[in-house]
Specification:
Elements: E1 3-6, E2 9-12, E3 16-17, H1 23-36, E4 40-42, H2 50-59, E5 68-73, H3 80-94, E6 99-104, H4 113-125, E7 129-135, H5 139-148, E8 151-157, H6 165-173, E9 178-181, H7 193-202, H8 206-215, E10 220-222, H9 229-236, H10 245-252
Helix pairs in contact: 1-2, 1-9, 2-3, 3-4, 4-5, 7-8
């Protein structure tokens, strides 16, 4: 495992995502991830699986202090009072007294951005989270957030088919990491000819190459998800090989304009 640092805190660079994983499948998937060696687990109020995630961590035998646990406040709960009450509910569902990182999941019209970020920071000061951050924030939004509180990351869609250079530059200037969700482009990378050729040369799978490309870039965190134990293990098995400079150049040269996650409330991306 490699780590990145944000606000003086070491974070495992490879985490396990739990979007669209529900019920006992969420429990089993998180248990499988922890058994393999993941020590960074990502959930959200909107995933409706916090209870199962928390139970899986508690039952795993892994010391709670060894798990970097992330949850997200839903955009519907972005008003300051709702940040406070919904965070308390998340902690109750997770069965913990604090998380390691608390994010706002999407930009919201429930209040000024600054008020939402300040409310997150009050949760940090109260000891309910170690770090705070944002998710799906544009570059302008990220700059505003950084002006009012010690934001630690911006979690956004990022993969070999979608670049985030502007956000990465802003975060790097503040010595902060970007967190990449949907790092396998929700399956669109699986049959890509360039990735397939590189994977074959290394005796690896295309998903492993796609994950490795992100991890070899400085200041990146990646959180793949799966409900398949074999895939969960394979996604973790990316630390004993490296892409060559030529591999990286070939992947860098791919068009980076395929945005897949497009909810009706998404911001206007720059």
């Amino acid at each position: 495992m490699t780590h990145v640092t944000a606000r003086g805190v070491k974070i495992p660079a490879l985490g396990f995502g739990t979007w669209d994983v529900h019920g006992e499948s969420a429990y089993r998937s998180v248990r499988a991830a922890l058994d393999v060696g993941y020590r960074h687990i990502d959930t959200a109020q909107g995933y409706a699986n916090e209870e199962q995630v928390g139970r899986a961590i508690a039952d795993s035998g892994v010391d709670r202090d060894d798990v970097f646990l992330v949850t997200k406040v839903s955009r519907e709960n972005a008003a300051p009072d709702d940040v406070r009450t919904s965070t308390a509910e998340s902690l109750r569902r997770l069965g913990v007294d604090r998380v390691d990182l608390l994010l706002i999941h999407w930009p919201s019209d429930r209040g000024p951005l600054e008020a939402t970020v300040e409310a997150l920071d009050r949760e940090r000061k109260a000891g309910h989270t170690g770090l705070i951050g944002v998710s799906n924030y544009t570059s302008a939004m990220l700059r505003r957030a950084l002006e009012v509180a010690p934001v630690a990351t911006n979690q956004v869609e990022h993969h070999v088919l979608l670049g985030q250079d502007l956000l990465i530059d802003i975060l790097a200037a503040n010595d902060l990491p970007l967190t990449a969700y949907s790092p396998l482009a929700r399956g669109r990378v699986f049959n890509h000819p360039v990735l397939s050729e590189i994977a074959e040369a290394h005796g690896r799978s295309v998903p492993q190459v796609a994950l490795r490309w992100i991890l070899q870039r400085p200041g990146r965190i990646v959180i793949p998800r799966s409900e398949n134990p074999d895939h969960i293990a394979a996604n973790f098995d990316v630390f004993d090989f490296a892409l060559t400079d030529d591999d990286m150049r070939q992947i860098d040269a791919l068009p980076k304009d395929q945005r897949i996650v497009r909810p009706p409330f998404e911001p206007e991306w720059d």
